[in-house]
Design goal:
It is built from 18 helices and 25 strands. It is globular, with a radius of gyration of 25 Å.
C-alpha cells in the first residue's frame, strides 16, 4: 500500500467527521476520537468558551448542540503537516449562523485535540477587505453630512438621546480593543474611564515600566504595531498608541468619567448605570455591561500592626510614581514579582537603599530565554518569516487544551532551567527563593492559574544576586514602626518608604464595588481554572473562570488579560454581544458553575 500523506490522512478524517455530523450520528463521531481526546470550542458550537474532555463530555456537548448548530462545509485550509507522529491540519467550517476556523491534531488517525472557533456571523460580516465602507458619498445631496459632522452628531446623541447597547467600564487596552471590535460590528458602545486621557492607565504607572512581552505578542486588533516598533515598548509609548488608536478607531470613549453604581433591571432587561461625566451625572441604560477593569482587579494592600504610626510614605505598587524623590532614602519593597523587581531596580539606579522582602518563592525566567525558548516559535520575527503571524499564533496557542498545556510547557522550562543553570545558582546563593510552578510547568501556567508569582528578568536579578538590591527572603512584616519595619524573624529594617508590590484581587472585587456584593458572589471568582495548585483551588473547570464568556449574572461580562489575550478573546466576546443585539439565538452550553466567591 502507498503511504498516505498527512494531508490525505487529515482529509479522510475531516470527510468522515462531516458525514457523521451531517447524519447526526454521534456514536460514529465519537469513533473518530482517540481514548484521550479534547474538543475546545470558542462559541461556534456552545456560545461559550468550553473544553469538552473525553468522549463522554464530547457526546454530551454534541447531543445538546448539534441539531441547532447544523455544522457543514468542513474543508482543509492548506496542507496538513506531521511531526512526532502527530498530524496537524487547519480547516474551515460553517454553522447555521456563522463561519469558523479550526485546528485538528490526529494521533494514529484519531482525533487528539480539536479547536473550533467562530470567526464571523454570516448575516453580519465585518466591513473588512471587499466589504470595506466606501467613505465618500458621490453625487449631489443637499442634506449631505460629512464624516466629521456624523461623528459629532453621534458623540452628542449616544448616551443622551439614544442609549448604547453596551457599556464597557474601564478604558485600558482591554476595553479599547473590545470597543474597536464592537465598533466594526456596528454595536453602539460607550467606554467609560476615570482618567483624563486614553492611555493614562499606562502613563500613571512608575516611570521605568516597559512591556515584558515582545511586540509580536502585543498587537491590538485591526492595527498591528509598525515593523519598526520596539520589541519591548515603554509605557508612555504604549499610552500614546492607545490614545491614537481610540481616535482612529472612532470609539465613543468617555474620559474623566466615573461609574458610581450599576444594577440590572429585571423588568426591562437592561442595566441602569449611574456615571458622572465631567462633573455631571448621566444615567445610561445599556442591554450589556462589560467590566474591563483589568484582569488583576483591586489592589491588594496588606494591613500590618502599627501601619498608622509610620512617619514615612506607604504606597501600593500601582500608586508608586517612580524613583526620583527617593534618592538616598531607605526603601522596603514588599513582594518579589514583576513590579517589585522593576521598582527595586529603578530605585537602585537612583541611589536609593532598597531591600526586597520576598515572603514566598518566585518563578524567574530571563527575558531572552523566554523569547527564544518559549515565545519564539509563535511570536517572533522568525515566526512571521515562517508564515505564523499573530492571528495564526493566537489560534495555535488557543488550540492546546488547558488540561494538557503543562505537558507542552514542562520541556520548554526544563530547557531554560538547564540553559541558565549558573544564573539560577547565583540567585539561590543570594538567598532568593525560586520555583518553576507547582508542577514545573513554568510562567504561562502560573499566569493562567493565579496571575502572579513570577518575574520576567530584564536586569534586576543581577542586582539581587550581587547584593546591590538587598534581599530578605522567607520572612514577612511582623509590625510597622514609625521609622522601621520589624520582620517575623525579629530583625528590624529602617525605612523611609514602604512599597507594597503585593498584587491584586479578583476582578469581581470591582463587581462588588460597582454593582453589589450579591452579584459579585453570584458570578464568583474571576481567573484561574481549578488546577488545585497554589492560589487556584479546585475543582477543575477547564477554562478561565468568567473571562470573555457568559456568567451567572445575565448580561454581565468580564474582559481582561494581557495584550495577547485581550486581542484574541475580544473577538469572541464581541461576536457574542453582536449576536444578542441582532436577536440571533445564543443557547449557552456548559455555563460555568460557581465554586469560589472571591
Amino acid at each position: 500500500m502507498t503511504a498516505r500523506t498527512p494531508t490525505q490522512i487529515a482529509q479522510q478524517w475531516l470527510d468522515d467527521f462531516e458525514s457523521s455530523l451531517t447524519q447526526r450520528d454521534i456514536a460514529r463521531v465519537l469513533s473518530l476520537f482517540g481514548e484521550e481526546c479534547y474538543w475546545r470550542d470558542l462559541i461556534a458550537f456552545t456560545w461559550n468558551l468550553k473544553t469538552s474532555e473525553g468522549k463522554d463530555e464530547i457526546q454530551s456537548m454534541l447531543a445538546a448542540t448539534l441539531e441547532h448548530v447544523a455544522p457543514s462545509h468542513w474543508q482543509l485550509d492548506g496542507e496538513a503537516s506531521e511531526a512526532g507522529g502527530i498530524v496537524e491540519a487547519w480547516f474551515t467550517f460553517e454553522t447555521a449562523d456563522a463561519r469558523g476556523k479550526g485546528l485538528l491534531r490526529l494521533k494514529e488517525g484519531r482525533c487528539w485535540t480539536l479547536l473550533t472557533a467562530m470567526r464571523e456571523l454570516k448575516e453580519f460580516p465585518e466591513p473588512l477587505g471587499m466589504q470595506r465602507p466606501k467613505g465618500a458619498e458621490h453625487g449631489a445631496n443637499k442634506q449631505r453630512e460629512t464624516w466629521l459632522e456624523s461623528r459629532q452628531r453621534e458623540e452628542a446623541e449616544l448616551g443622551y438621546e439614544r442609549q448604547p447597547y453596551c457599556v464597557i467600564i474601564g478604558g485600558g487596552q482591554g476595553g479599547i480593543g473590545l470597543a474597536a471590535r464592537l465598533r466594526q460590528m456596528d454595536v453602539p458602545t460607550i467606554v467609560i474611564d476615570k482618567n483624563p486621557r486614553a492611555g493614562d492607565a499606562w502613563r500613571n504607572r512608575y516611570k521605568s515600566l516597559c512591556l515584558h512581552d515582545p511586540v509580536w505578542y502585543d498587537h491590538m486588533p485591526y492595527i498591528p504595531f509598525p515593523t519598526n516598533w520596539p520589541v519591548f515598548a515603554p509605557k508612555d509609548k504604549v499610552a500614546d498608541w492607545l490614545e491614537m488608536y481610540t481616535r482612529i478607531m472612532e470609539l465613543n470613549y468617555w474620559n474623566s468619567t466615573t461609574c458610581e453604581s450599576a444594577h440590572f433591571d429585571e423588568a426591562s432587561g437592561e442595566w441602569v448605570v449611574e456615571v458622572v461625566r465631567d462633573g455631571k451625572p448621566v444615567t445610561l441604560r445599556p442591554k450589556q455591561l462589560v467590566l474591563a477593569t483589568g484582569m488583576s482587579g483591586m489592589p491588594n494592600v496588606p494591613h500590618f500592626p502599627g501601619a498608622e504610626t509610620f512617619e514615612g510614605e506607604q504606597q501600593h505598587s500601582s500608586q508608586h510614581p517612580g524613583p526620583d524623590a527617593y534618592r538616598g532614602k531607605k526603601v522596603v519593597v514588599v513582594g518579589a514579582n514583576n513590579s517589585a523587581h522593576d521598582i527595586c531596580a529603578a530605585l537602585w539606579e537612583h541611589d536609593a537603599d532598597v531591600t526586597m522582602l520576598q515572603r514566598s518563592s518566585t518563578h524567574v525566567v530571563k527575558s531572552n530565554s523566554l523569547m527564544e525558548e518559549a515565545l519564539g516559535p509563535l511570536y517572533s520575527e522568525q515566526a512571521v518569516q515562517n508564515g505564523i503571524d499573530h492571528h495564526k499564533a493566537d489560534l495555535i496557542f488557543a488550540s492546546i487544551p488547558y488540561r494538557i498545556l503543562p505537558d507542552f510547557q514542562r520541556p520548554i522550562f526544563e530547557a531554560i532551567r538547564k540553559r541558565d543553570a549558573d544564573y539560577y545558582r547565583r540567585l539561590e546563593a543570594a538567598g532568593f527563593l525560586l520555583d518553576f510552578g507547582d508542577d514545573d510547568s513554568g510562567l504561562f501556567l502560573k499566569y493562567l492559574r493565579r496571575g502572579s508569582g513570577y518575574y520576567i528578568d530584564v536586569g534586576a536579578c543581577d542586582l539581587v544576586a550581587n547584593g546591590d538590591i538587598k534581599l530578605r527572603s522567607g520572612v514577612g512584616i511582623e509590625r510597622i514602626n514609625p521609622r522601621s519595619v520589624t520582620l517575623t524573624d525579629g530583625s528590624e529594617l529602617p525605612a523611609d518608604l514602604i512599597v507594597y508590590a503585593t498584587g491584586y484581587g479578583s476582578m469581581n472585587g470591582w463587581a462588588a464595588r460597582i454593582i453589589s456584593q450579591e452579584v459579585a458572589d453570584k458570578v464568583g471568582k474571576c481567573w484561574g481554572m481549578g488546577s488545585d495548585t497554589l492560589k487556584d483551588p479546585g475543582p477543575w473547570e477547564g477554562e478561565l473562570r468568567n473571562m470573555w464568556k457568559p456568567t451567572q449574572q445575565q448580561a454581565l461580562w468580564f474582559h481582561g488579560g494581557n495584550l495577547h489575550q485581550s486581542r484574541h478573546y475580544s473577538q469572541y466576546l464581541a461576536l457574542q454581544l453582536k449576536a444578542r443585539l441582532e436577536g440571533i439565538p445564543t443557547p449557552v452550553y456548559g455555563l460555568q458553575e460557581v465554586h469560589h466567591l472571591s
